[in-house]
């Protein structure tokens, strides 16, 4: 139930984000989710892409060190307090999100939260026990290996 996410630091300049997204697009790689955080002179770019191995290899060839982290995608109701309710399930377990981002889901009335937890495996176990729908690579149309 974990997804592979590409993380890289890019110069905080408009052309750098263009270079990354254009190169991925030219290689036929679709963006599934994206999060860019301003950290001063550099931005932290997190990507879920259709072909993880190819995207990482391409970015490394562009002299943009990219590393892979694992994240968890949870589908929640697109309604007030849904995120708080999900976080309530975790708050007393010692598991907390170290970063997260969201997008409006493809299922009617649903949103998708992408989390990197302090302990992804424990978070998955807790969320599954509570009946939270977790999305896998297939749900995103993501090829995670070089196959």
Automatic annotation (TrEMBL):
Residues 1-136 form the ACT domain. InterPro entries: ACT-like_dom_sf (IPR045865), ACT_dom_pair (IPR045739). This is ACT domain-containing protein. It comes from Desulfoprunum benzoelyticum. The lineage of its organism: Bacteria, Pseudomonadati, Thermodesulfobacteriota, Desulfobulbia, Desulfobulbales.
